[in-house]
Design goal:
With 91 residues, the chain is mainly alpha-helical. The chain is built from 3 helices and no strands.
Length: 91
């Protein structure tokens, strides 16, 4: 019985925006790895620039995602602090 309720809880649990952003980043990184491999194996005009861009994006994308999550956390805390500092009016 416990296993069934655990499975149901996992299905009912909603994903957070951080989890969605991380999953999106993982998909982008996998596609970048595939593009990097293709650019490294094939010799076509512009392959060197594509290879360099893919490598740079492989480093920059996770850093950018981390910065976005960090700034959103700061923004959320500021919003909550501003909301808590406002006097509440009862109508």
């Amino acid at each position: 019985m416990k296993n069934m309720s655990d499975k149901k809880d996992k299905k009912d649990r909603k994903r957070t925006p951080k989890q969605i952003a991380a999953l999106f980043c993982v998909v982008l990184l996998i596609s970048l790895y595939v593009m990097t491999l293709i650019a490294a194996c094939l010799d076509f005009p512009g392959a060197g620039k594509l290879f360099a861009a893919c490598l740079l994006s492989t480093i920059g994308l996770p850093i950018l995602l981390w910065l976005l999550i960090w700034f959103s956390g700061i923004w959320k805390n500021r919003s909550e602090e501003a909301e808590n500092s406002m006097p509440h009016r009862e109508e």
